[in-house]
Amino acid sequence: MMRFDLVDLGLFRHVVEAGSITHGAARANLALAAASARIRAMEVSLGAALLTRGRQGVTTTPAGRTLLAHARDLLDGIDRMQGELAGFSGGTVGQIRVLSNTNALTEFLPEVLSAFLARQTGVSVDIEERTSDEIVGLVAEGGADLGIVAGTVDTGALETYPFRQDRFVVVAGGGHALRDHPAVAFADVLEHDLVGLDRTSALTRFLADKAARTGRPMRLRVQLRSFDAVCRLVECGVGLGIVPETTAARAARTMAIAIVPLLDPWAVRDLTICVRTLSALPAFARDFVAHLRAPPTA
Q1: Given this model, what pLDDT does residue 86 score?
Q2: How far apart are CA 260 and CA 267, in angstroms?
Q3: CA dihedral defined by 98, 99, 100, 105, rounded to 10 degrees?
């Protein structure tokens, strides 16, 4: 007879979403040995493999995919129950799982998130950076409560709400050949050395995909962890950078850099909130969506 407890189900969801037992164990706050033993015990109890283990991580078997769908439904239902019942004790308790693309995560979420958490002291928010295409798939599968994606991505049957608008621009240092151009196409940018975020970032993977479609690689000379650091290296003449216009405008106030608009249509970023069904979210998560949708304060 199958005997899975909530810790088992939560661990299994973390492992699948992380693509690794090691990373899933860390997310579930379990030691790797304990997590591995729990997964094995689940498989023995079921009498079938739940995961296919490989050098690149783990993937779900057909049985694992079925279990994942039910685990997500059960765990989401418990989150909703806790959120609703917490209101009777004068507070709200729960966690909101958010996936965001690089632009929203670095430029807009910090401010709105801090304001929300200051008001909702019993809520925690788990944010992970992904590309917009990945986010849509994971939200649709129940891998997150909500996502923030580029408005150009196909969100399918997900419910969507506007969030913010920004655009990517090129930043160039003094003396660079593109510094005085009124605008430039991404294909022309690829002829020059670039300064960018590290290769694991959603934006770098997005730009690498766009570069591959032109048949040219990105010549990344330096990979950094923040847009501000990118602008600083650009100012020093290391190469061109591609950053959100809000970042570039802020950096240009203190750095000797020029801002050159990108001509490509994908450079304009209408950022969108996406959820499976807003009414199915816990009350505190619906409150967070409403907070995100509110116009920014001056």
Answers
A1: 66
A2: 12
A3: 50
Length of the chain equals 298
Residue type, 158: L
Contacts of 206 (CB under 8 A, 6+ apart): 101, 102, 131, 132
Q: Is the pLDDT of residue 234 over 90?
A: yes
Residues 6+ apart with CB under 8 A from 102: 129, 197, 201, 202, 203, 206
Q: How confident is the model at residue 208 (pLDDT cuts 50, 70, 90)?
A: very high
**pLDDT tens string 38-56:** 999 999 999 999 999 988 8
Long-range contacts of 211-216 (CB under 8 A, 24+ apart): 211/186, 214/186, 214/187, 214/190, 216/187, 216/190, 216/191
Inter-axis angle of helices 109-119 and 283-293, to 10 degrees?
Answer: 140
Closest CA to 269 of 114, 132, 156: 132
CB 229 within 8 A of CB 252: no
Q: What is the pLDDT confidence band of residue 298, given thresholds at 50, 70 and 90?
A: low
Residue given tokens 């005085």 in the structure block: 180
Coil vs helix vs strand at 296: coil
Q: 236-268: per-residue pLDDT in tens?
A: 999 999 999 999 999 999 999 999 999 999 999
Query: Is residue 178 classed exposed, middle or buried when 0-12, 13-18 and 19+ CB atoms within 10 A define those classes?
Result: middle
- C-beta of residue 274 within 8 angstroms of C-beta of residue 135: yes
How far, in Å, are 7, 96, 112, 177, 276 from residue 137 at the CA level?
A: 25, 17, 25, 40, 10
How far apart CA 279 and CA 275 sit, in angstroms, is: 10
For the record, the structure tokens of 291 come out as 């907070």
Q: Which helix (H) or strand (E) holds 223?
A: strand 220-224
